[in-house]
Every structure is written in C-alpha cells, then in structure tokens.
Amino acid sequence: SAASASLLFLQWQNAHLNTELRSSQQALAQARADLQVQVMRCQEAERKQLLLMERAEHLELDLSFRAAMGGTPNAGAMLGFTASPGFASHNHTACTAPPGMPAFGSGTLPPELGHSPCGGAAGFGAGRLTM
User: Which string of DSSP letters, residue by residue, matches 55-113?
Assistant: First the structure.
C-alpha cells in the first residue's frame, strides 16, 4: 500500500511538473513572439529615420541651392519661384516657396519630418552655402 501511495504521489508530481513545463514553454514562446515584434518595429523605425534624414538633407541642399540661385537675376523664375517684395529695397532677391513648402532659408522642415537627430530642425543647415 505504501508503494502504491508513493507511485500515486510521483504520478501526481509528474503531472504537476508537466503542467508547469507547458506553461513555461507557452510563456517563452509568447516572449519570443513579443521580442520579434519589437525587433521588427525597431528595424522599421530605423529605416524610416534613415529615409527622413536623407529627405531632410536633400531638402536642405535644395534650399541652399535655391538660396544661392537667388543672387542670379531671373534664376528663381526659371525654378518657378517669385521675388518677395519686402526684400527688393535691400538689394536681395528672396524666394517665396510654392504652396505647402516651408519658406526658403527658414531652417524649418515640414511637420511630417519632425526634428532632426542632429540638434533640431535646422541641424543640417551647418553646411549651408551662402553668398
């Protein structure tokens, strides 16, 4: 009788340990799935950051080019920009941006680009061409 009681106890303990093992395996599988989701989100965020940084750099270079072209007569007209009358009295040719674009030389980026990781929206302007 003692042997059968010992056997029943071992069977109960085995079943209990198997249940704990399955529970731990499920928790581990869930943790791995959560980690994979986080890794994918991180990779996507890094990709988006690189794309936005490239776009911001391109916009800053474009703004610098257009600002440099502002000193050339009629250069802005060739690019589709108009002279700002407020600057005419100062012997400047300032360009106003087409609708939906930031003002040239403002150092600001469109709202969808947010802030640059280089110290603010004007972070890429350090190498701006001036005339």
Answer: HHHHHHHHHHHHHHHTTSTTHHHHHT-EE-GGGGGGT---EEPPTTSPPTTS----GGG
